[in-house]
Amino acid sequence: xxxxxxxxxxxxxxxxxxxxxxxxxxxxxxxxxxxxxxxxxxxxxxxxxxxxxxxxxxxxxxxxxxxxxxxxxxxxxxxxxxxxxxxxxxxxxxxxxxxxxxxxxxx
Length: 107
What we know:
The protein is mostly helical. The chain is built from five helices and no strands. The termini are far apart.
């Protein structure tokens, strides 16, 4: 199998990679799909990462407006099981506060 750079212009590959990341698949899972669907290209975790980078595909969008994040968190908190999530968040906040106060006085 000769290495080529055809993948750089392969819109189907770009679309599939973007779809897999949006579905929040792990890189190992994506690797299984692309090895099957694009056998003409060599694949490894490193090449997958480079190709995701080439296409500008990222798992986390740091440019998401704060308002969108706030709305998503509030929507999640209002869903089924909200009481357990609220207690979990409260517990995490209390533990964080206790840790900060205990380390503030340790000299």
